[in-house]
Amino acid sequence: MADPHAAIFSRAGNTPSVQATSTMESLGQGTLLVLAPHMDDETLGCGGTMALHSDPSRIHCLFATDGSRSPAPLLPWTGSPDADLAGRRRREAIAALGELGVAGEQLSFLDFPDGGLSRYHTQLTRRLADHFLDVRPDIVLAPFRLDVHPDHVALNRATRIALRGLTSPPIFLEYFVYFRLRLLPGNDIRRCISERSMIRVDTAAASATKMRALMRYETQVRALHSWQERPILTAERLRERCETPEYFLRSDPSGGLLDVFPRHKARILAAFLAQRFGKRPKDQALAMLSWLSRFGKK
Known about the structure:
It is a single chain. The chain is an alpha/beta fold. The protein has a single domain, classed as Rossmann fold, CATH 3.40.50.10320. The protein is 42% helix and 13% strand. It has helices spanning 18-29, 41-52, 85-99, 121-135, 150-164, 207-215, 218-221, 235-243, 265-297; strands at residues 9-11, 32-36, 59-65, 107-112, 139-143, 171-175, 198-201, 246-250. Helix 3 packs antiparallel against helix 6 (207-215) and helix 6 runs antiparallel to helix 8 (235-243). It starts with 8 loop residues before the first strand and ends with a helix. The relative contact order is 0.16.
């Protein structure tokens, strides 16, 4: 009997192997546990895949941080985040996942401080290990190891360590939120990964559903404050994420950080570090120039 998911789930650029086909079937039918650093990461990286799942009652999502620093001004004297931002983002997550068919009781919130997840590595790893035993997923999905944002990197690291402690670990896939890195081919780090390790999900049939879910994140898709020049998720980025396939890296929790890159490892690491540590100072400098420009006109 033909695999009903073969037209949707495929090895990127290759005929699926037996192992990859098993992973595809689990993505479409098995128990999924999606680990998200912040509310909206899960929908950006996996929303279409979740929407295509044959049984949403088998999808679970865990949010590691409270989301209380997005949006927040780059220049602190220009304003401050909403006092109830953490609560608002939790409500948005429940509404967004509801659009994907995932009920609120299937969501978990750890509420570690947004932007400081690496400081809670031991507690986070322990909480993840406990959650794996409670949910017993077939597949765990976590953000990509070089996903630029420090909370994403911290969650990937804790996930890999927690999975190593399991007697029968689930399949581990990494999803992509921040895949645009300058200095790399096409400015896309996914192009640098061995195709044998990648799974491509054609989410065209779920693009409208994914967009509806993302639009539930009003704090991310709208500029709600005077100190915001544009929303965090622009219309262009929303279209890109909803109209293109979702990609997943099949990962070995015990493998090395750069093992999935067949070549140019030093160049990839340099591009990651430049983006990781250079983006915020650049954004702050641009925000300062914009503020000075507006201040000078008053």
